[in-house]
Amino acid sequence: MFILVNLKAYPCDPLEVATAAHEVAEESGVRIAVAPQAADVRRVADTGVETWAQHVDPNGYGSHTGSTLAEAVAEAGADGTLINHSEKRLKLADIDGSVQAAARAGLETCVCANNPAQIGAVAALGPDSVAVEPPELIGGDDSVATADPDIVRDAVEAAANVDESVEVFCGAGISSGDDVDAAGDLGATGILLASGVAKADDPRAALEDLVEPL
Ligand SMILES: O=C(CO)COP(=O)(O)O
């Protein structure tokens, strides 16, 4: 199981989370990555933790003021990138362009989507993984794996119908090892989470709890 911690724009210390994630990954053998703000990618990557960007734009080098260039985050140390998060929605053509831009830069890709129908659509664009995250459960206390297990099962089926090589992650409200276990039972091979770690008083303890059953 892959644990991908999205720090969003939360006012946490990205280096504290990154250091804890790196240590817990080393101790547990579980793959854990941290996705900080673009401006923090280099500092986070320097801790040794697997580092992801939260977004890349579809454009390559050129006259694109304000864009997040896939090559730039890769050069800063990112190993992968989220695309089309529920809080950073893109048009299908732009998701396609961002997946291609990330692939050109050597970044692993995870395209987020709200529901199984969208999961099928974005799986067709050839990302490495997709993540189903029902927006109404994001940031809440109810885990998607228990509050809406069918959405995870259906997302796994929707992706497999399009391309069996695309991994399916899930996220929203996940904060404990039991939640991670339940998501795995539904067929997810990764977890995308944010507040359970980024807003925790003790991020390291939160991460240890998440990997405990793995
Ligand atoms: O949006 C998410 C991860 O990208 C999920 O957020 P929460 O873990 O805070 O529900």
From TrEMBL:
Pathway: Carbohydrate biosynthesis; gluconeogenesis; Carbohydrate degradation; glycolysis; D-glyceraldehyde 3-phosphate from glycerone phosphate: step 1/1
GO cellular-component term (any): cytoplasm
Catalytic activities: D-glyceraldehyde 3-phosphate = dihydroxyacetone phosphate
A biological process term (GO) from this entry: gluconeogenesis
Domain of life: Archaea
Residues engaged in binding substrate: N6, L7, K8, I138, G173, A194, S195
Enzyme active site: H85 (electrophile), E133 (proton acceptor)
A GO molecular-function descriptor: triose-phosphate isomerase activity
Matching HAMAP family: TIM_A
Subunit annotation: Homotetramer; dimer of dimers.
UniProt record similarity statement: Belongs to the triosephosphate isomerase family.
Entry function: Involved in the gluconeogenesis. Catalyzes stereospecifically the conversion of dihydroxyacetone phosphate (DHAP) to D-glyceraldehyde-3-phosphate (G3P).
This protein's name: Triosephosphate isomerase
Organism: Halogeometricum borinquense
Lineage: Archaea, Methanobacteriati, Methanobacteriota, Stenosarchaea group, Halobacteria
Gene name of the encoded protein: tpiA
